[in-house]
Amino acid sequence: MRKFDAYKETDRIVEFVRDYYKKNNLKGAVLGVSGGKDSGVVAAIMCKALGPENVVGLTLPCHSREADRNDALLVAERFGFELYNIDLTNVFDAFKTEAMKLGDFTDKELKNSDINLKPRLRMSSVYYMAALMSAVKGGTYIVPGTSNACELYVGYFTKGGDSVFDIAPIYSLTVDEVIKIGEVLGVPEKVLYRTPDDGISGLSDEDKLGVKYEDIGKLIRGGEVDEEEREKIGILHHRASHKFNIPIYHLEEK
Length: 254
Hints:
CATH topology: Rossmann fold
Low-confidence stretches: none
Strand order of the largest sheet: 3-2-1-4
Radius of gyration: 19 Å
CATH architecture: 3-Layer(aba) Sandwich
CATH class: Alpha Beta
Mean pLDDT: 94
Strand content: 5-15%
Number of helices: 11
Structural class: alpha/beta
Shape: globular
């Protein structure tokens, strides 16, 4: 496995962001801040690259824990960017009220739809605010993604939700590498080392996936992974293939 130089990679990521913004005449960024390490690290990166005055964070509770917003506040206070709260609970409930008019569904039938509706509502909200900030602040605000390479490899994201973004600072970083970048940038320890979870199901990410992020990272980087774990990760990766390859019909040229 290659040696990861967190200081060097942090500088490269920051330069990557600055270069993209300069080339495309962009001004700022709007992102959801969940209180977890990925959004905390991305917020820190964007603040370092653009200045905290050009970064807007959103907390988007939806039948959520108050502790998540408190952790998001730690990140905003550490890096000095604006943090707004938009409570989506009533929006979610209103949608569910309308959807339940379509039939009598069981909790089991609704579970997956309910879980994925929340990140889709959140992403709509982030893009709404990005457009609003662009109008208010006189320059284009875009949305950085907060997914890491381990999540992406096993498809642990929602199509039309956290899979939607305009720039991806940590897309190619494993969980361990994200943490190392966070250490360099000074992300609050409570946020950086928090057990990752979706804040929805009551389970940790690893409990839900049935594999450890450490093993996914090792597999991605060509390290040694127990054969049983390798197989589990491979199955998850294969099952998520539809999330990466959208079939497109192309009209035949005559």
